[in-house]
Every structure is written in C-alpha cells, then in structure tokens.
Amino acid sequence: MEKAIEYFTVFGGLNIKIDTNKPLLELIQTHLLNNYRMLRTEIGLISGGYRVDHAILTGAALGDRRTQTAFKKAHVSFEEGMKCVEGLCEKGIVELESSQHFLTQQRGDTKVAKKLLFTAPFVRFWFAFISPIYKGIKEGNYEEFYALYENRKAQFSDFVFEELALEFLIDFYKEDALKQMGKYWDDKIQLDLIAKTTSGKIIVGSCKYNDTKVKKSELTKLKEDSLSLNITPDLFIIFAKKGFSNELKALKSETIRLFSAKSLKLLLE
Question: Which among 25, 212, 22, 17 is positioned nearest to 125, based on CA atoms?
C-alpha cells in the first residue's frame, strides 16, 4: 500500500498504464521526463499556458497551498492572483479549500487564507518538480530534477496521504456517515482532519507520512489543540505510514483509533 500511495502521488490522474514492479524513478524518466515535450503541450492546452498561472500553480505545489503564499512566490498581488485562481478553478485544475472553522465553532477569520487543492496528483507533481526546471529536462539533462525530487519527495507525499485518509473515513464510517469533513488551520493550529458524523460525533485526527513510528506525543498534541479550540472530540484518529509506538498502541480504544498505510487497502475495494 505504501508503494501504491507513492506511485499515485506521481501518476494519479494521468491516463497511462504503470508497471508498479519497476522502480518509481525509472517510470518517471520513461513516462514523464522522456516525454516532456508532448506532456508540456497537453498541460498547456489544459491550463492555457499563461506564465502567471503556472507560477501560482508551482507556488501552491511546492508550498503550504495557501493562496497568499502562492501569490507571494509568483510575485503577484492578491487581486491578480485570485483572478488567475478563478480561471484555474473554471478549468478544473484546482479547487479552493476553506478551513473548517464552523466545525470547531470558531468565528470565521477572513484573514485565514484559503488553500489550493489540485484535482489530479499528476498535475501537482508536474508543477512541483518539472515545470520549475523545464530547461534542463527539455535538453535531456535530468540531474536537477533528481536532486529536487530527492530533497522534497517525503514532504510532497504528505498531502496525498491526508486526502486518501479522508476518503478512507468516508468509506469506514458508512453506518454513521460523515456529514461534514475537511481540515482546520489558523496561524497557530493545524488539524489534518476534522469531521462531524450524522449523529453529531466530532472526529479529530492527524496524518503522518514519515518513516518513523508515531508516538504518544502526537495524541497529546491533538488533545491540546482540541482544548485550545474549545472542542471536545468524541473520537481521535491517527494515520501513520509506519505504524505506532507500543505506548501509543496500548491506548487504542473506541475513542482512539489508529490506522496505518495498510489500512487504506479499503479504498482499493
């Protein structure tokens, strides 16, 4: 399942057959880098090929996805940036994501920037790792790409893991279906997932896509953040790529649920 997530982060939404028995970097070179010119033309047809739009998409792909951060990296004003984003949303390339303030019963803060949500993982990958350094790739020199990808690939996969975790919860809680769900963020606190079921139960959770086991401290942080937001979750959920410490596993209960990357096999069914 870890391999499936890793490959989906790169090729999700791209209509080609992938042999997952082959190394990921080999597949990237074969299907993406070697076909740069053709794919660039296709991306241009989808996006319109405007320089400012591409700069905003790159800023979102490599940053925290907040609109203000992407506009700053693209060196455009908020007004110009939002005009570009509206066009990108109309084309179906991105969607605007809002912090779920109402689920925490917090007053909506107009200063909290919305985030850009790519509709296809491949497009996000393109604007993170290929578009910014296209000159070398166009000339057949891939060294810069490999260096950039190696430095950022772990952090880059976090977002897709979070999105898959949200989809998993939709399937997992069919009996008490999720009525509202999403993420929460402000200047101090960020919750990877927060949801409310049809019966009114509040779920708060985190997703950790790294190569170490998640410790009890992650649960402690979730509880502290919930307290700061003045909410009392009925259920804490933690997703982890590599599992959990024995101390944290000992705390599993009806109100504390732990899921590894393997748990996401439910999505394949």
Answer: 25
The Cα 206–Cα 2 span in angstroms is 17
Q: pTM of the predicted model, to two decimals?
A: 0.86
pLDDT higher than 70, residue 176: yes
Q: What is the pLDDT of residues 126-161, one digit of tens each?
A: 999 999 999 999 999 999 999 999 988 877 888 888
Please tell me the class of the 2-159 domain: mainly alpha
- CA 148 – CA 58 distance, rounded (Å): 13
C-beta of residue 237 within 8 angstroms of C-beta of residue 253: no
CATH architecture of 163-268: 3-Layer(aba) Sandwich (3.40)
**What are the start and end residues of each CATH 1.10.10 domain in the chain?**
2-159
User: Which has the closest alpha carbon to 99: 62, 56, 60, 66?
Assistant: 66
